[in-house]
């Protein structure tokens, strides 16, 4: 039976060749001062500390500014700050704000605003929580300077402050004093664009206007670092939840930029002479197959490893991103491929790719036909595809699998259950993650193995936790890499999750957009229209 | 009649109370956790717990239900868990597109379906009758989203006559407003046209066999006069009833139509709220839909008196 998604694809596919031959559409000429964007999701919350939703983070990059930011090569650069000084004993870091920074309400950005923002963010950011025991105090010195006083040296301080995964955005002190578990109501920032609150219609439209008082940093844009120059008057996000409609709107010129086109539609969009379809994000999106280590059969590491022997990442990545090998990459380790800590130590098990050997290993591990409940989100195409591949794989190696399809909201509630499968629990589920969040042990939540406090699946392995702590203390890059290799090796033994490789998420934009650049996150400064 | 109207309006209060209890209980029992969605995919269970507590979702059923009913009794539909905006404001932002879509669809459907049904009954057994019934079967069978995609393909992509998606508020001019609504209204109206055309035909067939129609013919009344003045007026009660019942179809269909054509209406608001488990929004919208449905039925009941003088309240 043909599904709605397939029909949508067919509708768009049928339409595009004809459209490609036609002159520019007459109905949808947008203004050259407005950038019309189809975002990857509905912007429902404006508080980047309260929620970790990517769409809220993208809003925050427009609305707020960062103290430090990541350049295209991953190096943390000053952004709102002129720079920082580290004391000789390395127990204090003093940051100085650039002059002339203004909030959207016209107030000056002061050091006290930065300190209040850091304190609120630090209560939610997993990275900063790792560093927190080493931080004695964050204090305001004067209007432009603030200081971190430390109990012991923290070489990763700017890495935390300038990270892209859970960025530290600066808000006015009066707003930043809000409890981090309560949502802020007033989106006043000092970023290159000002959020137009009265035009916000959640689920339909979000609008930003150029912040005339914004002073971009000198220098060319470089990833998220460098000059964040607003080149257009307005950015308008229109939520179009139906992919075929979004594709049609792009082709017809009713929209300028589509953040996350479906992979199924990308080849068809490429056939339109007015569109560019390219990878804009610097990192791929990584797939993860997560086991529940609390209950049989996956409380047995040997059974988890048996499953890993059958996994061939290429099957998963093809299911998500198609057969074009440029659309995805195999990555048989727990750290983001291409980053400093990437390694495959102990990862031979992921190179077995054999259902027969997995079957034998499963028997040897003592699998007794216990039921495996795989929960899959039917409304999340990429994760659903990963789930279906695993369901097939588990059946092929002889496991007793029950595939439970539900919407994403139900899946993420059920995965929090620590009950056995007979009482509404689960055995295995899948998710995806940006490469950013897997690049360091402090980000990589899937790697955590601190039992009841670990991420869903709750693996308990003191050795992983010990290595993670040792990595934070590592003195030099060589030691850091050595510990990362030990972590990878141990992760392959524990096998709390199976890495499934990464796929590139393309974006689509009209050819009359200028200045589109690659970055670790989707941002809209420096982009103009001709 | 006014006493009847007041009685009916007052009767909506217990109906709405039952709806409120039902919706609240259903959402309470349904799986899903807004706190987990807010916290994000990579949040720790501890973060999720703290957000749940901050939203008051850890409170007992009766406490939550009592607080909600108390707020509604004071005219407050609550605040969206996600957007922090009042539910009443979110509904206000979305009501115009949905209302516009419904009105245009209703006018379009009635003005096409009733003449179709009348002509089919008049030409019973002919090719015209079969064509009308064939169309009705098609209207019932083809899902709204299929019709929507086909219309967008033909009229927006191929012919470039109409926009693919979106909504233009009425205040910006009737032309752009209507331009955005034509395709969605046709897509949504298909099943409604089929329903009304079928019931019109069936009722008209029955009426056309009555003695007074024969008498009218014997007196020399013209065909148009017989069909539209004598027969249709007497067939109107069941037709109007079906139009009223069909409002529920429209509400259901609007959810899909608004998604396909990216119309920022209440249907999409409902779907988005359900997927995110934004309980106050779901409860508010369902209450509104229920209230509208009850009111529509009241209006239909009152409309009977216009078509049939024997009906008195």
From TrEMBL, chain A:
Residues 1-28 form the signal peptide. It comes from Humitalea rosea. GO terms for biological process: peptide transport. It is found in: Periplasm. GO terms for molecular function: peptide transmembrane transporter activity. CDD domains: PBP2_NikA_DppA_OppA_like_16. Keywords: Signal. This is Peptide/nickel transport system substrate-binding protein. Belongs to the bacterial solute-binding protein 5 family. The keyword Cytoplasm does not apply. SUPFAM superfamilies: Periplasmic binding protein-like II.
Automatic annotation (TrEMBL), chain B:
Its main location: membrane. CDD domains: TM_PBP2. SUPFAM superfamilies: MetI-like. Residues 95-304 form the ABC transmembrane type-1 domain. GO terms for cellular component: plasma membrane. It is found in: Cell membrane. It is a multi-pass membrane protein. Keywords: Cell membrane, Membrane, Transmembrane, Transmembrane helix, Transport. It comes from the Bacteria. Signal peptide: none annotated. PROSITE patterns: ABC_TM1. GO terms for molecular function: dipeptide transmembrane transporter activity. It holds the Pfam family BPD_transp_1. The chain crosses the membrane at residues 9-30, 99-122, 134-157, 177-197, 235-261, 281-307. Belongs to the binding-protein-dependent transport system permease family. This is Peptide/nickel transport system permease protein. The lineage of its organism: Bacteria, Pseudomonadati, Pseudomonadota, Alphaproteobacteria, Acetobacterales.
